[in-house]
Amino acid sequence: MNSEHTMSTVQRRSPWIRWIKLLLQSKTGTVGFFIVSSVVFIAIFADILAPHDPAVNNLGDMLKPPVWLDGGSQNYILGTDNLGRDIFSRIIHGSRVSLLVGVFSVILAGLIGIIVGLLAGYYGGVIDSVLMRIVDSFLAIPSILFILVVLAVFNPSIMVLIIVIGFTNWVTYARVVRGEVLSIKEREYVKASKSIGTKNITIMLQHVLPNILSSFIVISTLSVATTIVLEASLSFLGLGIQPPDVSWGGMLTDGRNYLATNWWLATFPGIAITVTVLGIIFLGDWLRDVLDPRTQVNK
Predict the structure, then answer these.
(1) What does residue 73 show for φ and ψ, rounded to 5 degrees?
(2) In the chain, what is the straight-line distance between the N-terminal and C-terminal CA atoms, in Å?
(3) What whole-number distance in Å separates Cα of residue 166 and Cα of residue 172?
(4) Where are the alpha helices (DSSP H) in 154-263?
(5) What radius of gyration, in Å, describes the C-alpha atoms of the chain?
(6) Integer Cα distance of 152 and 38 in angstroms
(7) Is 218 among the domain residues?
(8) Does residue 18 form part of some domain?
(9) Is residue 60 within 8 Å of 84, Cβ to Cβ?
């Protein structure tokens, strides 16, 4: 009885052990996982980790340099901005906005893309033609132009950003999923399921969908990185997250007029964006290698 319990425990743990080993074998994957995990941890516990309120102005301490420069203060490790707000605390809280917009807009785009791609690829014919023409229509409109128009009409907020970015990026997922489904539906096990009268919805959910998840995960991971950059760009233009909410792009806007004299205002938010995006890209590259059956990583 004990041996059976031990074997079942090992079998449950073995997939996790295998993934950990694969991660440790990849330097870029390990670095990416460490960066992404750190940013997620910081975003979750921002209220505890931030030494100051990121929105409180303190004009008596405005434009303080980082602690290692002349005139720096131990109270402000990375210095303060033109309103005396602690840059370190603002970077910590800004990670929340970047992750929220990046992750949830990709989830929204992915859900729409999977549904459209599944229906178009599986049923084909008129349904495929209609859905793909809708995809072509979205591709014909510059996504950044559409986003700018929507944000100019509606009051920019985290929810609005998530929705508008999600509704402009789903076409990529739809095309990839459709291509995968066109190949998968011709396989023997799908044809066998059809021959015994299995419902189409059951076949799509149980046989087709699990086989496209690996491609979806890889694309989604890399899309989070591009979405974070897009959110920062919109906030930099003043069309993204509005004060008093903190975003890295908004911090870049605040510091662009002080680059010559107070470089830290824009430098540290820029570093935060760069490191976070690189970490996500490294993790996405590792996932692509691990989940791609044509590679030798799984061996």
Answers:
(1) -130, 145
(2) 33
(3) 11
(4) 158-184, 188-195, 200-203, 209-236, 248-255
(5) 23
(6) 34
(7) yes
(8) no
(9) yes
In sequence order, which ranges of the chain are alpha helices (DSSP H)? 2-25, 27-44, 46-49, 87-123, 125-140, 143-153, 158-184, 188-195, 200-203, 209-236, 248-255, 264-291
User: Does residue 6 fall inside a structural domain?
Assistant: no
DSSP symbols for 235-246: HHTTSSSPTTS-
pTM of the model: 0.82
On whether residue 19 sits in a domain, the answer given is: no
CATH of the domain at 30: 1.10.3720.10
d(CA 121, CA 117): 6
Work out how many domains the chain is built from and give that number: 1
| pLDDT 10s digits, 209-227 | 888 888 888 888 888 888 8
Residues spanned by the domain of 265? 24-291
pLDDT tens-place string over residues 141-168: 888 888 888 888 887 788 888 999 888 8
